[in-house]
Each structure stands twice: as C-alpha cells, then as structure tokens.
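Task card 7
Instruction: Convert sequence to structure tokens.
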Amino acid sequence: MAISISSVKKLKKFLLRNRSMKKTRGQEELTNVLVQKKKKKFVITKQIMGKRSLETDQSSEEIKSVKKHKNNVELDETIDANETITEENNVKSLPRTRKDLIELPYDKKLDFVSVIANPMAGKKLAKKLFKLMRKASKISRKELLRIGLKEVQHRIRKGERGLIVFAGDVTPIEIMCHLPAICEEKDLSYVYVPFRTDISTAIGVRRPALMVLIKNHDDYNDLYQECENKIKELTLEFLKSQ
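Output:
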C-alpha cells in the first residue's frame, strides 16, 4: 500500500506538535518546582527574621530596663543636698568648666593641689605674681616669658634667670617633680600657684600652662624684686617646718 506525500507531511506536523507539547509541559513542571522551592525559602527566612527581631526586641527592652534602673538609683539619706560627693579615694572632683575654675575662691583651690606643691603662694603673693605676668605679657611675651614644661627646662639649661611659677594641679606629678631640685641647684626662686588656668589667664593664653619663667625688666623691676623676696621668705619658712 503506497503512502502519499501529503500524508507523510501530516505525520511530521503531528509529531512536531507532540514534541512541543511535551517540552511545554516539562517546562511548566520545572517552573512549579522552582516556585515551590522559593516559597519554602521565603517561609524559612521569614521565620528566622522573626526570631531575630524578637531577640533584638528583648535585648533592647533589657537595656532600657537597666538604664531606667540606673537613673532611678536613690542617693544615701546621710548625704546632704549641698554636700559635694567625693570619689572612692576621697578626692574631690574638679569644677568642669574654665569659668568655674577661675571663679573658685583661692582657699578652695588649695583642696585640689598635688602633694608636692610646696611652697604654695598665699592669696596676696599670688595676686602680685599674676600682675607681674600680665605686665611681662603686655611688654613682650616672647622675650620675657617662657611658658610650658619643655621651654622652661630648655631655658634653665641654657642659664636663663628669672622667677619660676609652677601649677599645683599638674598630673601626673612625675613629669615635673624633678624641676624644683634643678631650680635649687641653679639658685632660682620658685613657687606654686593652685591651677594651670590661673597661670594661663594671667599670661593671656587659652591653653593651660604647667609653669612659667618670668624674666626681669626695668618697667616692673620693683614688683619683680618684691615677689622674689617674698618667695625666698616663703621657702625658708617651708624648709624650717620640714
């Protein structure tokens, strides 16, 4: 039985259609599988993220509760409202701002000085020293004043002479505790004042000064000699008391 050409063509078309149908069905099945996998991943990640968010919420709540507890800590009834609270080592806390340091009474400033701050200038001598510093600064700060640890040490070694004023609140004391002995060897008069800010305000500098060397000048020779004599008297009194 002979097969016509037209029937052969029809068979080819039919076979091709079946193949395409199979491909589309296979593709659909694959896409369905991928979608299901993605859905599973999304659900798992959602669950994990939910757990994490719960953990973070719990931790934030704990932190808030701790902060509230800290803020709600009540002071001991034995402490008065006007009394200054001291640290564990019974050292009073310094005033915070520069203005508070300057405006603090001279007698109260002496509570914050270090152990080695001797001989300490009295209120009247300190005023005269600050006046001397202001005069020297107005005439020539570069020529008549040596400010800071490095410059004062350098100038003393070179043999410059003058009155040396140390700050009594220098910490740590190891950085300048050797200088009084050097001053005594070189026969230089030295004295302490309570704060670094006292020296810096007298000189007209914003940065706190650890120490200053004041050189003599004709314009304030009388005041210089008066301060030097009083410093010598003070050192003699201090040495006798030892």
